[in-house]
Design goal:
InterPro entries: Znf_CCCH. It comes from Polarella glacialis (Dinoflagellate). This protein is mainly α and 201 residues long. The chain has helices spanning 11-21, 39-42, 68-75, 79-96, 100-118, 125-129, 135-146, 150-162, 169-194. The chain folds into two domains: 23-61, no CATH class; 68-194, no CATH class. The chain has nine helices and no strands. Bound molecules: zinc ion (2 copies). Residues 38, 40-41, 46, 48, 52, 54, 56 line the site of one zinc ion (ZN).
Length: 201
């Protein structure tokens, strides 16, 4: 859609225009994988300008918050349940927004994580079964999540994957910080792939 704006321009004029159009870091990969909207920019002026780490593009019509009930529900899920819920949402969102190819690495790492954290929970399944929320609530939550930007759901998955409260010490050690780094690195690479490229520059 970006290129359609420049269809009438000769090639020699394209590069400077594209460079000028490069967004600030926080707006890169908007709308699906940008950072959260900049409150200063929204209020009229952002002193960080082209260096700002928050998104300067329009987020008006996209719901980016879950209601309280859904947030509580999500918080009470185990890491394995959380990833089992969020992974299909992310996969579906990536496909519907045309990002399936870019999202492959991130989704594969999250899948590995889901498998890794599902295994040790076998022993504690009896304990968690009692707190598992009713299926209809989970499907409503999943429907709400499907309307949210990829980055928002991904953030929830990353929080679930790295900061789950009911995770045991040994699980944390087993998962290690290195796979978190791997995941965050994959997200950065996906964002870079989605950022507009200055062709020929
Ligand atoms: Zn954005
Ligand atoms: Zn800003």
């Amino acid at each position: 859609m970006l290129t359609s704006l420049f269809d009438n321009l000769p090639d020699s004029e394209m590069v400077p225009v594209l460079l000028a159009m490069l967004p600030n870091p926080g707006s890169m990969a908007h709308p699906e994988l940008c950072r959260r909207p900049c409150i200063y920019f929204a209020a009229g002026s952002c002193a960080n300008g082209s260096a700002c780490g928050y998104c300067h593009l329009s987020h008006e019509h996209r719901p980016s918050h879950l209601d309280r009930r859904h947030r509580d529900l999500l918080r009470n899920l185990s890491e394995a349940e959380c990833l089992a819920l969020l992974l299909p949402v992310l996969r579906c969102r990536a496909e519907s927004t045309g990002l399936a190819a870019e999202a492959v690495e991130v989704l594969a790492l999250l899948e590995d994580r889901a498998v890794a954290c599902a295994a040790p929970s076998e022993a504690s399944r009896a304990a968690t079964a009692a707190t598992t929320p009713p299926q209809h609530q989970v499907s409503k939550l999943s429907a709400a999540l499907c309307k949210m930007p990829f980055s928002t759901v991904l953030g929830m998955a990353l929080r679930g994957a790295t900061g789950c409260e009911n995770k045991h010490e040994e699980d944390l050690a087993a998962m290690g910080g290195s796979s978190d780094q791997l995941l965050l690195g994959a997200v950065d690479r996906m964002r870079a792939r989605l950022a507009p490229q200055a062709v020929g520059a």
